[in-house]
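Q: Can someone sanity-check these two? First one:
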Amino acid sequence: MPSSHSIGKSGATCLICFPLRLGIFLAAIGTSIGSIWAIHLKENYGDQARMLFGGFSFYSVLFGKIIDYVGIVWGLWGVIGCWQMKEGYLQMYNHFNMLRVAVWLSVLYYDFGLIWNCEEWALDLDGAVKRHGWNPTMYKLGRSGGCVPTRFYFNIFIPGGILLFTYLIWANIQLQRLISSEPAYLLRLPAVKLDPAYYAYSLGEKSALLGQRSDRRGDLPMTRGDTASGTEKSAHAASAESHGPGATQNNGLKPLWTEP
């Protein structure tokens, strides 16, 4: 998993100007806070809230309430996922984003016909009731003369919200790919056993300092027997020791200096 610094250096952005991780982090916070604000707005300012979130039919009201209450909790998964760089949490948050897009599409489906023919609730009440059933919300809106501004804001905010949430789904997927990807410098050789010729350990380890490591090369992986390569055999041989009990005294090399 790459670090947050490497993701920042990747240059990926969200919403044009935000770094990708920061953008998703802010969107997740906005999901929880926005859900609380939407609940408050719908309960206290119903007419204005319907311009922003819909709610002119029974199903759009029901689905809207569900997505608001779920969003309070599910936004926290996105916050934790961005903070701790957890791909699984981001996936859970993105599932909510997909559900939210589906709900807003259903709101557009159920409410658009009512809003588009809003004036008929004032001009042809009987015909409107026959086509759509009795709807006190639309009756109140039609009689108040607020059809034009309500239709304008509804047609701006609902499609705009669907596009925004769809974009956030795509951005979330990009962040998940960055988190799950491995750095380019890592080399994987499947089904190939690497030679331990260049195996090393630190002389500062506890076992070395306390003199508990009697065989300097004893912790190497086992050789493959007769099929081992010459390099691998030599790595396990006693002659490979440059110091310690297993080191050979005469390896054919002249010492750099002699003891006086």
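And here is the second, same format, sequence then tokens:
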Amino acid sequence: MSEQKHRAAAQVALAHKALELRKRNEQRSPRQAYRQQRSRRQRTRHHRRPARLQDNGITEASDAESADDDQPDTLVPDAVVCRELGGISRMTLHRRTREDPDFPAQVQVAGRNYRFRSALEIYKRRLLDRAMRGQRQRLGSRCRESVEASR
């Protein structure tokens, strides 16, 4: 019986403590409450601003075919390039820039990186051609194997 009383007393004490904390949090300013919710590690870590995606209606509407219409080539932000290349990360984009000689060169404007739309479309077309060539080779070898197996 005394064990049940101890449990009940502990539950009451926890309920009182929770009520106290709620009251104290209500008295805090919204900024203080927000800081309280974040862990210490989150408060001390330096945060990088997330990449801002701009409305690039003109950029995204253009393509390599429209490049010969006497219109200037448009610049595509790196965030859009990452998305167009299958959602790759910025680090993968950086590696491709460094290691792949066919990858479009970056252009820096006001501290932000861009690529020319025409060069990007040419690169995507080359990637697609390489993938299709590999697929045809794999399918061709399978077809030959199946023909030889049926003999």
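A (reply): Looked at the second one. The chain has two domains: 2-44, 57-150. The radius of gyration is 30 Å.
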